[in-house]
Amino acid sequence: MIIGKEKYWENVRKEKQGNNLFLIYLDEKCLKSDQGNNIKLPAQLADEVVREWNADGKIDTIKKSFFTKFCFAVIDMTQKERENVVSRLVAYGNCDPICYIADEPKKLHIKQKKLYDPLIDWAQKFLSIKLKKGPDLLFIEQPPGNSGSIKKSLEELDDFHLSTLHELTKSLGSLFTSLALYNQIITPEIAWEVANVEDNFRIEIWGEVEEETLIKNVNFDHFNQLVKILKMI
Q1: Which residues, other chains included, contact 5 with Cβ-Cβ below 8 Å and sequence gap of 6+?
Q2: Of 122, 123, 115, which Cα lies nearest the Cα of 196?
Q3: Confidence of residue 1 (pLDDT cuts 50, 70, 90)
Q4: Cα atoms in the 13 Å half-sphere on the side-chain side of 194
Q5: Distance CA 115, CA 197 (A)
């Protein structure tokens, strides 16, 4: 575990281990997580962490950098935390927004059906589930067997893939959209469009609100960082 608050090293490097994973070294000291675990990462993700630890700044600040913070959290994930992540993702699947299609206005209804229906069809086949659709004003109770099928699929993922999917789902608000992106069924551009179809429609009608646009831009940058991780693991 790193002791102290000030940057004390001169060189940061990655060193290859087995299974194409890399340790990170600060001079001759191996970088460890907050819980004292070695940071073992795929090559490209290791490069990003090396870049962050090469930056100037205090250790606490570097630890809050995007890739370092993500990797530390995954490396230190406990079994209980993993179970909680799976449960949260299953909960997303039981009230996924792509199952809710507005009746009115008609233009929004058409946009949503065009984007949502192919994802619903794919998710049903991929997860062997049945999804009910309905208007956006009423809660839709999905078939009880869905939860078990979704959980089984998620439990097959390792901690890095599960955590990335979880973060993508929080960013997009939709488990099924995130799964489609994760499995390269849709592009990041389409995934973002699906997640923002209602906001984009509102902007078409009423125009942009500066504060909302700033928040959306920050969220978009965060989403793109997650897409980078998805390509690295």
Answers
A1: 58, 59, 60
A2: 115
A3: very low
A4: 32
A5: 9
The residue whose two tokens read 């619903």 is: 120
| Per-residue tokens: 216 | 């959306």
The 10 Å Cβ neighbour count of residue 20 is 8
In the three-class reduction of DSSP (H, G, I as helix; E, B as strand; rest coil), residue 151 is classed as helix
pLDDT digits (tens, 9 = 90+) for 154-194: 999 999 999 999 999 999 999 999 999 999 999 999 999 99
User: pLDDT tens-digit profile of 22-45?
Assistant: 999 999 999 999 999 999 999 999
- Give the 3-state secondary structure percentages of the chain, helix then strand then coil, rounded to 5: 60, 10, 30
Which domains are delineated in the chain?
12-75 (no CATH), 79-232 (1.10.3580.10)
Nearest alpha carbon to residue 108 among 208, 212, 209, 197: 197
Of 229, 113, 213, 207, whose CA–CA distance to 161 is shortest? 229
* Chain position carrying tokens 């962050």: 52
Please determine, for residue 2, whether its predicted confidence score (pLDDT) is greater than 70.
no
